[in-house]
Amino acid sequence: MRKNMLPYHVVELRGLACILLVAYHVVGIPGSGMQVAEGSIYRYATDSFELIRMPLFTFISGLVYALNPARSDRLKTFFIKKLRRLGFPFLVVSAIFYFLQTHAPGANGSFVPESMWRIYVYPYAHFWYLQALFLIFSVVALLDALHAMDRPGGFVLAMAAAVAACLTVHVESNVFSINEACFLLPHFLFGVGVTRFRAMVLRQTMQAAAGAALAAGVALHQASLWGYLPHFGWNSSVALLCGMGGAVTLLHAMPSSRVFRTVGASSYAIYLHHALFAAGTRVVLHHMDAPDGVIFWGALLSGLIGPMVLEMLAQVRPWTRVALVGKA
């Protein structure tokens, strides 16, 4: 597998990112999820990883993409594969999720668009990430097709433009999650750079710089969580410090682990389907008046294991593989 060409435990790191993501959706935002109090340890813990979760997912995508980047002579094939991987599940799974949400209001939060077409044009539930990631792949693929980032100088210019967009772009309508694409593009490019130019930077230097960035970012973010500083969003320099510093630190620190590797191997299926399984389990446990700890762990495990089982069942037919998990 191409992932093995990287001297890191990338699949395990994907598993960690999945666990953080599912835990966040189990706890939810105020008014949804477990509906725990604002000062709950569950909310505090998930909020503490707010600036690391999705940047980490995106960094890993860039890290792996750079092993087999788009080129001008196979650009069409690249986009066909991305449409199959991202587009078909986006159309099918988001429609299933919308149908279930409209027939069981409140199970996964309160926001449900009145018109179904809006789920394909604007951010909806966790499917916004598929929209944003496709935009990111499109931009980076075109840059690579033009050989604009083959050398460090071109890459630095692209990264500088991405950081500027992250800090400044805000489209009011947010069509196709363009704002989130701008927020996360620097993290994807950073992953590309770590793969493409890692031989140019000493491992110790990279780890030291990442650790310092993470420490500074976490200190500022924690100060904001405790009310000493205003809230920092994804389009902030603090988010860039936490996201990039955290990604490289975890990349080098992540050990080999069968559990994390198993979760990471099904990361895409988990991302697509975790909300259905986690929410169903959470609702049942809520009705049983289960304590918060039981609800959290029950919903977390359901959100991880359920999609793995679904992924295995989807293998029986070619069309289910494509529609449900984006596999050929």
Automatic annotation (TrEMBL):
Single Gene Ontology MF annotation: O-acetyltransferase activity
| Subcellular localization, as worded in the UniProt entry | Cell membrane
Q: Which Pfam families match?
A: Acyl_transf_3
Per the UniProt entry, what is one GO biological process? enterobacterial common antigen biosynthetic process
InterPro entries on file? Acyl_transf_3_dom
Q: Which GO terms describe its cellular component?
A: plasma membrane
Query: Domain Acyltransferase: where?
Result: 13-310
Chief place where the protein resides: membrane
Q: What is this protein called?
A: Acyltransferase
Q: Which organism is it from?
A: Azospirillum palustre
